[in-house]
Amino acid sequence: MSLSPKLHIEKIDSGSLFRAPTYRLEQSQLIHRAPEEVFAFFSDAFNLEKMTPGFLNFKILTDPPIPFEEGQLIDYQIRLYGFPMRWRTRLESILINEKFVDSQIRGPYAQWHHTHHFEAQENGTLMRDIVLYRVRFGILGRIAHPLFVRKSLDSIFTHRYKVIQEVFEEN
Question: Which of 7, 28, 45, 147 gives a 20 to 30 Å CA spacing to 114?
């Protein structure tokens, strides 16, 4: 189902009574810059603060500088529906100027595995995000997904899309 420009979320497994389904979120965006420039922007963890909507009250807790290297842990704090939450991710793999993967170690999801692709195109870089995620709380997570989670992700990734357009139009 397409929720916003180039955002697609689909269920890829059914889960069970005690485990919510796994979903696949994908968003693509053409950026009229070289992959090296786009990748450099995304390799700076503090740019995530710029791309995250204000309603999440997103804050990076890890002290700078944050090395962009495999195994690096990054701690964040967000406020989701009024509740403060800590989120920790690990940079799982990095292929400079082509892709990197981060996974949630601790946070609001039962699973969050985010692959960022950067593909050279004739007129710039096709950036593609692929996120595999599962919500917590089994059957309650199944109920919460269409009511809250999916809508929140749509809002977050729509905001991110717009900010990325603005950032790369300015330079």
Answer: 147
CB 158 within 8 A of CB 55: no
Would you tell me which CATH number, out of the four given (3.30.530.20, 3.30.56.10, 3.40.50.300, 3.80.10.10), belongs to the domain 2-170?
3.30.530.20
Residue with tokens 């204000």: 54
Q: What is the pTM of this model?
A: 0.92
Neighbours of 74 (CB within 10 A): 17
Which residue has 């995000």 as its token pair?
A: 129
Phi, psi of 42 (to 5 degrees): -75, -20
pLDDT in tens, 39-87: 999 999 999 999 999 999 999 999 999 999 999 999 999 998 788 999 9
Cβ neighbour number for residue 138 with a 10 Å cutoff: 15
